[in-house]
Write a structure and sequence with these properties.
Blueprint lengths: L1 E4 L15 E5 L1 H16 L16 E5 L7 E3 L27 E8 L6 E3 L1 H11 L8 E5 L16 E3 L1 H9 L4 E4 L8 H11 L7 H4 L7 E4 L11 E6 L10 E3 L3 E4 L4
Parallel strand pairs: 5-7, 6-8, 7-9, 9-10
Antiparallel strand pairs: 1-13, 2-3, 4-10, 4-12, 5-11, 11-13
Helix pairs in contact: 2-3
């Protein structure tokens, strides 16, 4: 079995619209901090100087939101009400784990340009690769956007799915749709300029808003989809971090490919 990392890093040195902070507490600083916390919280005393080199453990303190790096959007991210079930969209900690370890397929949309593609493009690509998705397959969109990770262009130049393309995949029984782009929808600028010209509200984040009518999850900010040896015939593991009540959770997405591939 070969493992292909499909994840982008959480990296405070890279450009983000909402900056990430990463404070590294050294092992020596960690020793002093731990001594202080043990004294204040548990009434325990120890002298950090007695430790080898005066060091205990390093600690990383990060400030970021749950949509930084490779992450999975839960149904509750798409709105406070759902038009299915009891009307309450589930949060990331409530999603069934069996959605996130499944056979997967990848669609090559690298020539699509900035904006969106519709169902006909998705269907044509499935015909090209000769695959008919099965219920609960994980769909992956290779837009080529991951090559711009760490730059402003990553957030402005990519292709997403329109309402018809999203519905097409959901009709096939797909529950998780992933993309290497910042969003499964078109870039913000493209959405807003199209709406300004047309006043058509259906162009406003249709891939996300589809989740108000039908329960599904998105994986955003994937990487290395071009390293997959074939468009199907592999599995993806992408279990989300269990954040109570959250609309998204980070994931270390990995493709599992048989050695014979």
């Amino acid at each position: 079995m070969r493992y292909i990392d499909l994840s982008t890093p959480i990296d405070a040195s890279q450009w983000e619209p909402e900056p990430v902070t990463h404070e590294i507490v050294t092992p020596a600083e960690g020793a002093r901090q731990m001594a202080k916390e043990m004294r204040e919280n548990f009434n325990l005393e120890f002298d950090p100087a007695e430790l080898p080199d005066g060091e205990l453990l390093s600690i990383d303190n990060l400030t970021l939101n749950s949509h930084t790096g490779t992450h999975i959007d839960a149904p509750s991210h798409y709105g406070s009400r759902a038009n299915y079930g009891d009307g309450r969209p589930r949060t990331i900690d409530e999603m069934p784990l069996d959605w996130f370890f499944r056979p997967a397929f990848v669609l090559d949309l690298t020539d699509a340009g900035v904006g969106t593609v519709d169902a006909s493009v998705v269907e044509k690509e499935l015909d090209r690769i000769g695959y008919r998705p099965q219920p609960y397959d994980i769909a992956l969109i290779n837009s080529g956007a991951w090559r711009n990770v760490g730059t402003m262009q990553y957030f402005t130049d990519f292709v997403g799915l329109d309402a018809s393309a999203t519905a097409f995949l959901l009709d096939l029984g797909v529950k998780v749709i992933g993309t290497d782009a910042f969003s499964l929808d078109a870039p913000f600028g493209h959405i807003l300029s199209t709406y300004a010209q047309t006043k058509d509200k259906s162009v406003l984040w249709p891939a996300h808003f589809a989740g108000r009518d039908r329960e599904y999850c998105q994986i955003e900010r994937l990487a290395n989809l071009d390293r997959l040896p074939r468009p199907y015939g592999f599995k993806v593991s992408c279990f989300p971090i269990k954040i109570a009540g959250a609309g998204a959770g980070w994931t270390r997405a990995v493709a599992l490919v048989d050695d014979e591939d």
